[in-house]
Amino acid sequence: MREYFTRLVGNDETKNRIGSLIDAGRMPHAFLISGASGSGKMTLATEIAASLNCERRGESNSPLPCGKCDACRRIYESNFTDVKVLRKPTDRATIGVEPIKLLREDMFLSATESDYKIYIIDDAELMTPEAQNALLKVLEEPPTEIVIMLLTATPDKILTTIKSRVQHISTTLFTDAELEEHLCARSDSARMLKNTSPDKLRAIVMSSGGRLGEAEALMDRKRAAVCESEREDVLRIVRSVRHGSGYGETYSAMSVLPTKRAELSRMLELLLSALRDLVTLRHSPEARLLFFTSREECISLSDSIGWRRLYEIYDAVCKAYEYCSMNANVSNLVANLTAQIRPV
Questions:
Q1: What is the pLDDT of residues 110-134, one digit of tens each?
Q2: CA distance 261 to 13
Q3: Which of 56, 178, 193, 239 is a plausible cystine mate for 62, CB 3.0–4.6 Å?
Q4: What average pLDDT does the structure give for the chain?
Q5: Can you list the domains of the chain with their CATH numbers?
Q6: Mapping DSSP to helix (H, G, I), strand (E, B) and coil, where does residue 190 land?
Q7: Comparing C-alpha atoms, which of 229, 246, 255, 245 is closest to residue 334?
Q8: Cα gap 172→234, rounded to integer Å
Q9: Taking a C-beta distance cutoff of 8 angstroms, is the pair 275, 240 a contact?
């Protein structure tokens, strides 16, 4: 069976389905590619662009795209005339109508050096309604031999009239095993961690939330150190609410929480992941963990905190996380949460 889109991790069903369409010459003129940040949307769009213009597209014994021909290499290097990527301007919060109109005009010009002209709009949900309506006109009557790909993490923000005229693809989050395999295949640092500190590598993978881009970013030493520090702070909080602990221990653990709203929100989200593991493991000992690298420690902490207390703490942190997003006073929020979760 032919191998498709080798640069994209996971998403095997999607790779085979789209690759088969390209082989059969039945490529739709437009796609909406949705998925979480870091789930491979741009990688998939780039692989589709390279496949459509690959010089070995007709060779069934070659992967698609081959990744080695001149067209593939130049597309990967963002140096191919007939593949255009539109992103939000750095000085704007949205993608306005004018860039879409310019893109639309270009779509009616002949390809310069290939069979297909490819247009990729990143963060398509940032298009204004006027911009989306301008794009709709070309989606209703598209020129031949063009493919438009809209990438978005929030497809609900795309107009229904546009969604009805494109084929929807969803990229999926990756399993821990897939992420670890990918990191070790491409990173000397990851391979070293796997041999010397496998728990640290597993913590990086788990902290990525199934997002390949985040997992790769966390391999940076500074990011990895921040991630490790955050996880240690969360563990201190969880350990401080065990039966027999004192209020001082909880107060000390909670005092390291950040005072900036965005950073506090991230820490509370991480704390919820840890608490979710403690609760879930009581129901299903074989459940997938989102925070703990040690199943034994997770079970031990769950037992030492107790069933009723776990639910009370989980509910309190959930409410704090919600209030944090509602612009509640950060200092008061942390103080109230500390009082609610302190050992009794």
A1: 888 888 899 999 999 999 999 999 9
A2: 39
A3: 56
A4: 89
A5: 12-170 (3.40.50.300), 220-341 (no CATH)
A6: helix
A7: 255
A8: 28
A9: no
